[in-house]
Design goal:
The complex is a heterodimer. Chain A has helices spanning 7-19, 22-41, 55-91, 98-126, 133-146, 148-161, 164-180, 189-195, 199-212, 228-255, and strands at residues 49-50, 53-54. By secondary structure, chain A is mostly helical. Chain A has a two-stranded antiparallel ribbon with strand order 1-2. Chain A is globular and about 60 Å long. The two termini of chain A are 33 Å apart. Chain B has helices at 49-57, 74-79, 98-106, 115-122, 137-149, 167-182, 194-200, 218-225, 238-243, 264-274, 287-295, and strands at 4-16, 22-34, 38-42, 64-69, 83-86, 155-159, 186-191, 203-208, 211-217, 228-233, 247-253, 256-261, 278-284. In chain B, helix 3 packs parallel to helix 5 (137-149) and helix 4 crosses helix 5 (137-149). Chain B is globular. The two termini of chain B are 15 Å apart. The chains are: A mainly alpha, B alpha/beta.
Chain lengths: 257, 315
């Protein structure tokens, strides 16, 4: 009975396993960085002011949110598949309780989600993006926080479709959610009205909030503002939707046994 | 003194059958295993072998009945490393290498064996740096064996460990397993190969449709099931027929007579040396036949089977 299992070591090994998964790392880190370099640093308006910073920073935050959400979605989806494909049975034959598996996976998922945020912020600092340091830290923290509901999204997809392809499609959908979420370019008109109800809109707006105080930038100059409650309502609503889906799917799965 | 290291009493379990009803996977199974015993769990697909092993491992909680492992719950025995298992399929991450898999699982045991030592014992070393997804079925099975050895278990449960292995890999696997058993480990394995039970287990439990049909020394269970069919062309007198040894049952079709026997050698020798029988064929009884015979009402068995079948040995 001496000794204890080493969760830290397990987490480190699992983190490394996911990091070296080239496909994942490309979509989570390399692609967002490239998108930012293209959309966020080379445009004529990149240096225009937004709130206390500039447009480049405004773009950077959103693309980092996209990368972080990609990370948590694919990690959670993959975890659901692992468990269902028998790895869960293997783990059930160790000293690690099931709760610790959830903790380990969450740590790994957040760890992976932090990577695009760090990389993009460093690239931002080295290029055109500009914000006061306090705002910079606040937006980075909110970006990581905003990726958490997408872990539930990935989990729900993994639980319902049980295939790698479905999880891949789910991460692919994030491109559309991000576009509608006002992440890549400023939306207005009908697209903005629709976008406000889509899942990425809230977390992107929340991450940008320290920079913009909710003010929207637009190609026109209408100067709309999203109140904080509306932003939080979007995040909360989608968290509840994804969370409920996971609970229902989990119940369906266990009742079948 | 109670020397049972595993004791299952009245274990029942059912699953939805997909048509609104429930299938009884385990129907009041009693099983008691003594420390150091090597036991084969024999049965056709769907007999309930995997479900029974899952309950012994604490992976499934039975609807009724009780399972104790070393006077503890199965989960506690697993967590302390006394009980481990080689599971049937799945259960491996394809993008990890074999060695990484061993290291990862080792991190989750309280007092794991040395990783390199375990890989040597299980024969994982030659493909240690290969991704699991690229390993052959036999190699993955060796890897699962290494994982099963990690906690230095006192009891190892193997669910069809040689499924998908060729003959030589199967032989090699059992040679490694025998070393473990010789070191005093209690081994329980599920199989549908009668030969594996005969070669490696002193005790065999026969299961079908969630019930234990026979439980006792492997020799007795085998003879109870009938080991082979011997066919000859022969027209015996009733006395001659009566004199044939080791006969469990006789059927005839014209001149062609077929004996079910628990000792094909002795029966064939008798027929060829003492009688005019010729055209002899020997066919081992399939396990399916054995099950059919065991599930049949004993009263309908042929009268010639007096010298067969010991009584069921209580656990």
């Amino acid at each position: 009975m001496s000794g204890h299992y080493r969760l830290g070591r397990y987490i480190a090994l699992d983190f490394w396993r996911n990091l070296r998964n080239i496909g994942n790392s490309f979509f989570v880190i390399v692609l967002p960085t490239a998108l930012f370099l293209f959309f966020g640093t080379t445009m004529d308006w990149s240096d225009n002011p937004v709130g206390e910073g500039n447009v480049s920073a405004w773009t950077m935050i959103a693309i980092a949110s996209y990368g972080a959400a990609m990370a948590t979605t694919s990690m959670a989806g993959a975890a659901a598949l692992e468990i269902q494909q028998g790895w869960g049975r293997q783990l059930a034959l160790t000293a690690m309780p099931h709760g610790a598996f959830v903790v380990a996976k969450s740590v790994v998922a957040v760890g992976i989600a932090v990577l695009p945020v760090v990389v993009l912020n460093v690239v931002g600092i080295l290029t055109v993006a500009d914000m006061p340091p306090g705002v910079w830290l606040a937006t980075a923290a909110l970006t990581v926080l905003g990726s958490l509901p997408f872990a539930l999204y990935g989990l729900a997809i993994g639980l319902s479709f049980r295939s790698d392809a479905a999880v891949g499609a789910a991460t692919g959908l994030l491109v559309i959610f991000s576009f509608l979420g006002n992440a890549f370019m400023p939306l207005d008109g009908v697209l903005l009205d629709i976008g406000r109800f889509t899942p990425m809109y809230g977390v992107v707006a929340l991450a940008r909030y320290p920079l913009t105080d909710g003010d929207l930038i637009s190609m026109g100059a209408m100067g709309e503002t999203d109140p904080l409650w509306a932003v939080l309502a979007n995040v909360l609503a989608w968290t509840i939707i994804f969370g409920t889906a996971c609970l229902l799917l989990q119940r369906r799965r266990t009742s079948r046994r | 003194m109670n020397t049972a290291i595993i004791s299952a009493r009245g274990v029942s379990m059912s699953f939805p059958d997909g048509a609104g009803g429930r299938t009884q996977a385990l129907d009041g199974v009693d099983l008691s295993v003594t420390r150091g015993e090597v036991l084969a769990l024999l049965g056709p697909n769907g007999a309930g072998k995997t479900t029974l092993l899952d309950t012994l491992l604490g992976l499934t909680v039975p609807e009724s009945g009780q399972v104790l492992v070393d006077d503890d719950t199965p989960r506690a025995a697993v967590q302390s490393g006394r009980l481990s298992a080689l599971l049937q399929t799945g259960g491996l991450l394809p993008d990890l290498t074999a060695a990484e898999t061993v290291r990862m699982v080792a991190a989750l045991h309280r007092d794991p064996a040395d990783v390199d030592e375990v890989m040597d014992i299980a024969g994982v070393r030659p493909f240690a740096s290969r991704p699991v997804g690229k390993c052959s079925g036999g190699q993955q099975q060796r890897l699962r064996f290494a994982l099963a050895l990690l906690p230095r278990p006192e009891i190892i449960i193997l669910d069809e460990p040689t499924a998908g292995m060729d003959v030589s890999a199967r032989h090699e696997f059992w040679a490694r397993m025998r070393t473990q058993a010789d070191d005093g480990a209690t081994v329980i394995f599920a199989t549908h190969y009668l030969e594996e039970a005969e070669q490696f287990a002193r005790r065999t439990v026969l299961m079908d449709r969630g019930r234990v049909l026979a439980d006792g020394p492997t020799d007795e269970v085998r003879s109870r099931a009938g080991a082979a069919h011997v066919g000859v062309v022969w027209t015996p007198t009733p006395e001659e027929l009566e004199a044939v040894p080791h006969v469990l049952s006789v059927t005839s079709e014209g001149q062609r007579i077929s004996f079910r026997t628990d000792d094909a050698d002795a029966l064939a020798r008798h027929l060829l040396t003492r009688t005019g029988a010729h055209g002899l064929t020997v066919r081992p009884a399939s396990l399916e036949e054995a099950f059919r015979l065991l599930t049949e009402d004993p009263a309908s068995e042929d009268a010639a089977s007096e010298n067969a079948a010991s009584e069921e040995v209580p656990a």
